[in-house]
Amino acid sequence: MALYDYHCQDCGEQFTQSEHISDHTSALQGSASPLRCPKCNSQHIESMVSAAYVHTSKKS
Ligand SMILES: [Zn+2]
């Protein structure tokens, strides 16, 4: 299990969810039960993990 940070694009809610890597991937691809915002129940969720990774890798 790993922790992932998510950000709701509709209401701006940030939340953390623990899940397997495979669940994380399938959820983002929409092939499994979609992620939902715990606050507004929106499915417009983006992962903050990849964003942080890109930001870090740009530093040279
Ligand atoms: Zn929301």
Give an overview in words.
The protein has 60 residues and is α+β, with helices and mostly antiparallel strands. It has one domain (2-58): Rubrerythrin, domain 2. The protein is built from 2 helices and 3 strands; from the N terminus they run ββαβα. A 3-stranded antiparallel beta sheet has the order 2-1-3. The longest helix has 11 residues, at 48-58. The protein is globular and about 35 Å long. The model has no long low-confidence stretch (mean pLDDT 77). Zinc ion binds at residues 8, 10-11, 13, 37, 39-40, 42. Residues 8, 10-11, 13, 37, 39-40, 42 line the site of zinc ion (ZN).
Record the SSE blueprint.
Elements: E1 2-8, E2 14-19, H1 21-29, E3 45-47, H2 48-58
Antiparallel strand pairs: 1-2, 1-3
Zinc ion is lined by residues 8, 10-11, 13, 37, 39-40, 42.
What is the β-strand count? 3
CATH class, anyone?
A: Mainly Beta
Tally of separate domains: 1
Q: Order of SSEs, N→C?
A: EEHEH
Ions and ligands: zinc ion
CA-to-CA gap between the ends?
31 Å
Count of DSSP H/I helices? 2
| Mean pLDDT over the residues | 77
CATH architecture: Single Sheet
Helix content: 25-40%
Integer-rounded radius of gyration: 12 Å
| Sheet with most strands: strand arrangement | 2-1-3
Can you summarize the main beta sheet? 3 strands, antiparallel
CATH topology: Rubrerythrin, domain 2
Low-confidence stretches: none
Question: Structural class, from secondary structure content?
Answer: alpha+beta
Q: What is the 3D form?
A: globular
β-sheet strand percentage: 25-35%
